[in-house]
Amino acid sequence: MIPSRPHKQSMAELKLRRLTEHNQRLREDLARPRVRVSEASNNLIKYSTSTKDPMLPHLWGAPGKGEDPYSPVEKGCCIIM
């Protein structure tokens, strides 16, 4: 008959190792710098009102034909030789 004691110790050691690794990941996550939602929202508003973006026409107006990087490129008519 195989003794069950060493098996229980190895399971306990495995569980301890997993808990220790999880604890370390939680400590690293806790040490990560945080930004409050209100501060992030204000930064986003400041950026979108100070950086001209053709995807925000309600804020900046419709871009001219030459200014819109998303407009299709106009190709002239074809030349027949």
Folded structure, characterized:
The structure is a single chain. It is elongated and about 85 Å long. Helices cover 56% and strands 0% of the residues. The protein is mainly alpha-helical. The chain is built from three helices and no strands. The chain has helices at 5-31, 37-50, 57-60. The termini are far apart.
How many helices does DSSP assign?
3
If you compute it from the alpha carbons, what radius of gyration comes out, rounded to the nearest whole angstrom? 30 Å
What would you call the structural class?
mainly alpha
Largest sheet: none
Alpha-carbon distance between the termini? 95 Å
The tally of strands reads: 0
Instruction: Write down the oligomeric state.
Output: single chain
Instruction: State which percent range the strand residues make up.
Output: under 5%
* Mean pLDDT score: 81
Globular, elongated, flat, extended or rod-shaped: what is the shape? elongated
H/E series: HHH
- Uncertain segments of ≥5 residues (pLDDT<50)? none
Percentage of residues in helical conformation: 55-70%
Subcellular location: Membrane
Subunit structure: G proteins are composed of 3 units, alpha, beta and gamma.
Pfam families: G-gamma
Domain G protein gamma: 12-81
Notable features of this structure?
81 residues, single chain, mainly alpha, palmitate, 56% helix, elongated
Helix and strand arrangement:
Elements: H1 5-31, H2 37-50, H3 57-60
Domain G protein gamma: 12-81
Membrane topology: Peripheral membrane protein
Keywords: Lipoprotein, Membrane, Methylation, Palmitate, Prenylation, Transducer
